[in-house]
Amino acid sequence: MFRGCYSHTIDDKGRLSIPAKFREVLENQFAPPLIVTRLKECLVAYPTDRWRVLEARMDELPSFDRNVLWFRRYFYAPAQECPVDKAGRILVPGELRTDVGLERDVVLAGLGKYFEIWPKDRYYAAMENVENYDSILDTLSQMKL
């Protein structure tokens, strides 16, 4: 599982070093490559195995539902394979970097089965301004975890 937050930099060529703890998870639990796509404010990176599960679930959604179509266009269509090189880096596609404003300083945030890649300043601003935090805790407290 991907856990923790790590500050890293993207070099001028768009290469991003994957944190050692995340590389261990990839090497021991999942098959390469990573699949990277966008969310509204960040990128999200899935191991191929987890991406296939997500694809299967997306295939079950109604094909002609407008919301499903827009979700597929926004999230699924821009997804790209990003192999991890021998130095433990991925090449983050330029279009995806531009889409979410990734420049040099980034945060990689582990979320269990996948991780996010955020512009560093936006990540910390978002964490300071979590909306509905109390409501989220109330909902989680009612779930059987």
What can you see in these coordinates?
The protein has about 140 residues and is an alpha+beta fold. It has a single domain (about 5-140), classed as Transcriptional regulator MraZ domain (Chemotaxis protein chec, 3-Layer(aba) Sandwich). The chain has helices at about 20-30, 50-60, 65-75, 95-100, 120-130, 135-140, and strands at about 5-10, 15, 35-40, 45, 80, 90, 105-110, 115-120. The strands form two sheets. The chain has a six-stranded antiparallel β-sheet with strand order 1-7-8-4-3-5, sandwiched between helices. The two termini are about 15 Å apart. The mean pLDDT is about 90.
The CATH architecture name reads 3-Layer(aba) Sandwich
Number of strand elements: 8
Q: Give the averaged pLDDT, no decimals.
A: 92
End-to-end gap: 17 Å
What number of domains?
1
The level 1 CATH classification is Alpha Beta
- Uncertain parts: none
**Fraction in helix:** 40-55%
Percent strand equals 15-25%
State the CATH topology.
Chemotaxis protein chec
What would the principal axes of the Cα set say about the shape?
Answer: globular
Radius of gyration: 16 Å
- Main-sheet strand order equals 1-7-8-4-3-5
